[in-house]
Amino acid sequence: MKNLLRLIFTLFPVLVFAQTPTIIQKPITWNAERVQLSLEYLKNRHGILQENAYIHPTIVVVHWTANNSVQATFNTFNPVLLPGRPELTKASTLNVSSQYVIDRDGTIYQFLPDTVFARHTIGLNYCAIGIENIGGDKYPLTAAQLKANEALIRQLKSKYPIDFVIGHHEYKTFRNTTYWKETDPNYITSKSDPGEVFMVKLRKKLADLKLSSL
């Protein structure tokens, strides 16, 4: 009996997070123009020609927003066209976005369906689900966000063949692998989000899933 109880308590966190987390739908604009720009991005930046702007997720990329508001993030991602970021508009006028955003209290918002294309990580958008976290250098990510990221990633792993979970700051480690698809070898930006400390904590929480960071 003692061994059985010990096993139950050992598995308890996994059983809890296996449950489906509550997700609030907050869709950004997805219209014909955004579809066309997404298809052009897939073709011109990733070298992938397809009829639908869908992805086949195998990677989850964790980000931070560098602001302190879900609504500000929504307002940034919602326009179809990317305003005023020449380092990015030279590659495409398609606006940046992400499938998920997690508020500082752990509330999860879904901006786009899991398998709809979003521009959030150079070289990997075609196969990566993005999770944005409200916060940044001035607003360190919270324990509630850590818990929500764990729950969401467990759900995504149960639905898709997710092999990797990485921080945005780690994306360049994929450059010399078959996963990397970027037609311009000089198109690289420097990222620090969501920070090594947060990713170490998240990977510890997800250790039983045996996900890789490459």
What does this structure look like?
Residues 1-17 have low confidence and may be disordered. The chain is an alpha/beta fold. The chain has helices at 2-17, 32-44, 70-77, 86-89, 143-159, 196-205, and strands at residues 23-25, 59-64, 100-102, 108-110, 128-133, 164-167. The protein is built from 6 helices and 6 strands, in the order H-E-H-E-H-H-E-E-E-H-E-H. The protein has a 6-stranded mixed β-sheet with strand order 1-4-3-5-2-6, covered by helices on one side. Helix 5 crosses helix 6 (196-205). The termini are far apart. A hairpin with a 5-residue loop joins strand 3 and strand 4. The radius of gyration is 17 Å and the shape is globular.
Q: Structural class per helix/strand content?
A: alpha/beta
Global mean pLDDT: 92
Number of strands: 6
Estimate the helix proportion, in percent. Answer: 25-40%
Radius of gyration from the alpha-carbon trace, in angstroms: 17 Å
**In which order are the strands of the major sheet placed?**
1-4-3-5-2-6
Most strands sheet: 6 strands, mixed
**Residue share in β-strands:** 5-15%
Number of helices: 6
First-residue to last-residue Cα separation: 40 Å
Order of helices and strands: HEHEHHEEEHEH
Query: Which of globular, elongated, flat, extended, rod-shaped describes the shape?
Result: globular
- Low-confidence segments, given as residue ranges, are 1-17
